[in-house]
Each structure stands twice: as structure tokens, then as C-alpha cells.
Amino acid sequence: MSGRIAQLSLFLVAVVIGTLLVAQLRSQARPIELSNLSAQELSALIETLSARNVELGDALADLREQIRSYELAEVQGQSTLDLTRTELERIEAFGGLREVLGQGVVVTIEGSFDATAINDVIYELRGAGAEAIAVDDVRITARSVAAQGAGVIEIDGVALGSTVEISAIGSPEGLQSALQRPGGILTVLEQSINAQFSIAPTTRLSVPATERDLTPQAARPVE
Amino acid sequence: MSRRLPPRRRLTRPQWAISVAAGLAIIGFVGAAQWNSSLATQPFITSAQRVLISEAEQLQRQQETLRAEIEAADARVQTFQEADAGSQAVLRQLNEDLLAARLATGLDPVRGPGVVVEIADSQRAVPEGESGTNYIVLVDDLRDLITALWGSGAEAITVAGGGGAGGPAERIVATTSIDGAGPAILINSARLSPPYRIEAIGPEGLHDRFLAHPSYLKRVARRIEAYGLPFASEPRDEIELAAFIGNTRLRWGAPVVEPN
User: Fold this and answer.
1) 3-class SS at A94?
2) Contact A30 B48 (CB under 8 A)
3) Which of A8, B32, B49, B232 is buried deepest, with most CB atoms within 10 A?
4) CA closest to B107 among chain A residues
């Protein structure tokens, strides 16, 4: 009888320990709650989310317009090849497979910089809404990163010189203010590396297509 | 000759009493830890913060709806493209080009061999006088891990929050931004929370090259070591990565079209 009580007691203790341990582990893996953010952080988050939602709304409006055009062509018995061709050009421009012409900024970096500094500036430009980027004449695709080669910095196998020009298509004011904001990337880099930076807004900027073959070898489409 | 089995060994009172006492001690310890952590996650919230939280939640819901609508509209556009009544040969070529472009730019889901990387905030107590920021996953950490994967030959990458259970994974494309919003990280337009799960498809040896890549070793590997950020990575034979859902329209530029 006392043996049964002992087994039952141990079983109950084990169940309670297990439950508490799971609860504890789950609480440690809990996602960041909005209530843990300060008012300042919440304001910054709202500003970013609002801007991104406007972009998504514009993208949805464009897609709906495209659907209307296809529907209209279908009703009128016309071919939609031209619409599809335009869509192909747009996707190629988005992914770096086609040259893009527009307005934006040119960032010039001179002096002693490393691959990390170049990658940091590229990430910062993307964060500020850049739509197409090139470093010198190398188009930056999703897969392009600056890396330290044999004594030189390389992007997509192309060696960079001691002065580089980063061209970014996007809002000239938006890109410039994002890079130059107090505590921003240029302030940080100017304090940490021995290089000079200059930014020039421009209304006519060409960003070339990538020369890299982006056809995946290991990745295949999901049927 | 019959052998008598030895009497079955039973727990004597002192043995099980010690076991129960040890168990109760563990319950007390874990219970106290659980109580403390639940107290820590209920900070004082002002009415102004409450308004901001409500607005942020509304924007996140709006974003989820927009993304779902974009996904549906994009699928509809693709249906039209495949069903054109014009020249079949031209259409076939155009659709092949479209498929190749979508695949190369991250607009279609892909599968293949690759690696899975996970990184989370440190569970260590922040020493007095030291910044708590050092003990959480920073924007630069994710940027460096992604850079190291691309530099190691990755062909497609996604990042998910909540260890992969915190909503859809974000595909990294040419315009992807990785920014901070307080302790959370925004990728594309989505707010992700730790632990972060990065999945990448690439050719054989991707995992080894990633762990030896300077972009991994220079900053993030040191922070993992110094601040105890939980980190794990492993190669996988087959993974599937989601497509990018978001804006692919150029607002400040236009594609250059060669004359026919």
C-alpha cells in the first residue's frame, strides 16, 4: 500500500515538474510583445509599418489594374502578350536582370574601407527604400555581397578600387536623409574607418543589369 | 528444487520521501522562476502607449490582409499570362522567360538542399552597468548571417521569426530591408521576433563555407560567444522556401527597354 502511495506521489511530482518546465521554456521563447516597447519605439514602428503598408497598397492597386487590363483584352479578343512582356521587364528590373533608369543618389567612398562597410551602406540604402543599386558598374542583386578577395574587395567577382561609387535609385531626399541622419550609417562609419563619404542627389541615374547568371543550380521550383 | 524469488524491492519510506522532497524543491525553484518571468512581462503601460499599441496592431492586421490580397492578385495575373490566345510559340517563350525571371528573383517558392540557422536572444542575466542591447539579436547579426550565406553560395534565403512558428517566412530579395524597431526586427515589411530561423538553399558544402565565412566570423560569431546568444546551424537534404510577397513595382525608376 505504501509502495503505491510512493509511486503515485512521484508520478504527481513528475507531472507538476514537467508542466512547470514547459511553461517556463515557453515563456522564455515568447515573441516580443508590443507592450514591451517604449512609446518612442512604438512610434518608430508605426511610422515604418504605415510606410510599408502604403507601398503594399500601391503594389495591390497596380496588380488590380493589371488584372483589369487582362480582362479588357480578353473581352475584346486581343492578345495580352504586350502586357505580359511589360510584366517580364518589370520583374527583371526589380531583380537586377535589367537596366533601370531613374532618380536617386550617388554615394562616393574614398579611402580605407572594408567589405563590411560596403555591405552596411547597401543594407542602409535598401532600408531607405532604394529600388535598384549598383556599386561602380556592378548591379547589386539579392545575392551580391562585398567580400574580401586576394588583397582587394570584390563584388560578384569584380574587384573594387580605392574609390567606389554606389548608385541607388529611389527618393533622392529620402535616401540622402536616411544616410546622413544623426547616428546613421555614415556617422558610424566615419568614426570607425578612415574613409570620406559624399552624397550627390541626381535626377537622372542609370543602374546597369547584372552580368551574373542568377539561374539557380541547387534550388528548383516547387511544383 | 524450487528457487524462491527474492522479495520484490520496494521503496522504503525514507527513499521516496527524499525523492518527493527533491521534486518539491525543483517545483519551488521552477515555480519561482516562472512567477518572476511572468511579472517581468507585465510592465506599466501608459494610456498613450495603449493607443500606440492599438494602432500598431491595426497596421499589422492591415499588412496581413494586404499581403494575402497581393498573393491572390499575383496568382490571378499569372493565370491570364498562361492563357493568352495569341501566338503559342511566342507565348511559350515569354512564359519560360517569366518563369526564369521569377525563379531568379525570389518571386516563386523553391526547394532544394541547404542549411538551417537559428539564433536567439541570450538567456544570461545582464551584468550591472552593461547594456542589455548586447544580449539580444541585433539587425547587424541577421545582416551578417545573411551576407555570409550569400557569400557562401546560397541561391535563396528566407528568415522567419518565433523559430519558424511566428508567421510566414520572409524571402530575401534585391530590395529587402532589414531594420530594427526597438527589440524587434523588420524584414521586408514584417515584424519578426526572436528566435530567428534562417533557411538557405545552396550547393553542397554551403554549411561548411558559411561557418568559415568572414562575415560570420568577424562580428556575429564573436557576439554569440561573448554574450551567450543561443545559436545552432545544420545542413539539410531538402528544404522548401516561400516566395516573396510584397511590392515589386519601381516608383523612382523604370526598366530600360531595348528597341525591337
Assistant:
1) helix
2) no
3) B49
4) A91
